[in-house]
Every structure is written in C-alpha cells, then in structure tokens.
Automatic annotation (TrEMBL):
InterPro entries: Aldolase_TIM, DeoC, DeoC/FbaB/LacD_aldolase. The keyword Lyase applies. Belongs to the DeoC/FbaB aldolase family. DeoC type 2 subfamily. This is Deoxyribose-phosphate aldolase. The lineage of its organism: Bacteria, Pseudomonadati, Verrucomicrobiota, Verrucomicrobiia, Verrucomicrobiales. Pathway: Carbohydrate degradation; 2-deoxy-D-ribose 1-phosphate degradation; D-glyceraldehyde 3-phosphate and acetaldehyde from 2-deoxy-alpha-D-ribose 1-phosphate: step 2/2. It is an enzyme of class 4 (lyase). The gene is deoC. Keywords: Lyase, Schiff base. It holds the Pfam family DeoC.
Amino acid sequence: MNAPAHRRLLADIGTVDAVGIESRVAKYTTRSIKKASKVQGLKLAASMVDLTTLEGKDSAGKVASLCQKALTPHRGMDVPRPAAVCVYPSMVRHAAKHVKGSGVRIASVATAFPSGQAPLKTRLAEVRQAVADGADEIDMVINRGAFHQGEFQLVQDEIAAVLDACGDATLKVILETSELETYDNIRAASFIAMQVLREGDFIKTSTGKTSSNATLGNNQVMLDAIRDHYLTTGIEIAMKPAGGIKTAKQALQFLIAVKETLGDSWLSNTRYRFGASSLLNDLLRQLEAQRTGAYQAPYTFTEDASGY
C-alpha cells in the first residue's frame, strides 16, 4: 500500500469506527418485523433481487429457465418480479430473447469478472459487446491490485472508462470487499468510485466468488459512504450487496440498515439491489408461510417456473 496516498485520501473522507459499525449492525439483527409489515418487506426484497447465474456450466437453456423464473416468480401469489437477471456477457443475447421489454432488466458482469485481470482494452470491449447484445446494466470489478498499490487515480480512471463504454447502461462498481480487507479501505474505494459515477449508478460489495461476501458490516460502511457523498454532492448513488445473502431474514436486516441510514427514498430497486441466486426462493417460502401459515419445503420453489 502507498501509505502517503492512503493517508491523504482518508484525511479527506474520514476513517471508520470499526467497533461502532459492528455495534450498530448487531442491533439490526434484534429487530422484529411482523404481519403486514413483514409481507411488505418480503415483497420489497423480492423486487430488489438481481436473479443471478454465474457458473462455468451456464447455457442458453439454463438462462432461459432463470428468465422464466424472473417473469413468473410464483404462479399462485402476487409477487413482484425481480429487478434483473444477471448473467455472463456471453449469455446476454440469450437473456434478451426472454425478458427484453418485460420490465426485468438484464445485468451482465464484465471487465474480466471476477478477477479483473485483463488489459483495459479487453475489459472495455467486453462491456461494449454486452451492451450491444442487450445488457441494461454492467457489473464491473475494480482493479484491486492498483488500489493496494495506492494508484487511486488509475482505479478511478478505469471506472470512468468503463462508465463511458456503458453509454446509457447503468454501472455497478464491485469493490470486492473481502480483498480490500479493512473498513477504511472499503470506505476509500467507495468514494473513489462514487466521485465519477452518475446518479443511479451503484457501488456493490462483492463478486460472490471469494470466501467472504456481503455482510451487514461492509454493507453499513458503504451505506454510510453513500450518505456522506449525498450530503456533500446531492447525488444519489445506489447500493448492491451480493454474495452470501440467502435467507429472507438476512434480507430484511439489510433493508432495516437502508431505512435507518438512507431513509425511505432508497427503499426501491432503483436504489438498492440484492445480488443472489437462492434468496428469491426463500422470500417465496416466507411469503407462502405468511399467506397459508405453513412453510413449504426448500425444493418446492425451483430455479425455473415449473413449480410455483
């Protein structure tokens, strides 16, 4: 790490009270949401899901099933469609056949996801191709190596170049919080990204491909950064925790954090998303339980729409 550059950045944006963050997020896990408010929260969370498949064995058929799930989350109950389906760039054209024009957006992980270890020219070409094939949103990874070398301007310049390549597509900047290692670094990377993002673009915790992904702690650090940036600039940057959020209970805790930090205006899928593959099914199980009083088996809700 370039210590002088790091110190100068933290002097500008402030450091993080790690103990205070952990104490604060621990309180979110003690909150209880009941009855109508719980149903409202579960449906809101469902509307915020980026329904994701990012596997080496992804195929046109698997993406078609994922898209059908997005279009019909539950055949017997009024459930909002998820915000987007998220796929690799090579799968964008297949997703577009099924969801383009439906209101479900197409997100694509680009820039040599998840490592980002490719020449910038190659990363930008991947972004442009994904947008040309129909991607409405691009999830990029930052250059963590450059960040740890203190080359903050390079990190920011690459984000700006990707943003330009996106055109009208929304950009989500993945910090890969586990590789940033400290809350101070997460806050610093958040500001590096936000300083070049447009209103409505996102900062995102993780690729979901490392041992540690979204936590209430790193989510809170990023929410605080968004709040501070908004109070200074008036620009509303959106947020996406991704990886490891598998249960409705977790999702509701994250939404409590949003409400208490940023207020109701961020409780929308234009301002907050969940990157997840299995979260939607647990939200459906909980909604079914609220409706009928009985919990369904986890396998009741499949990846496609052949079940509920």
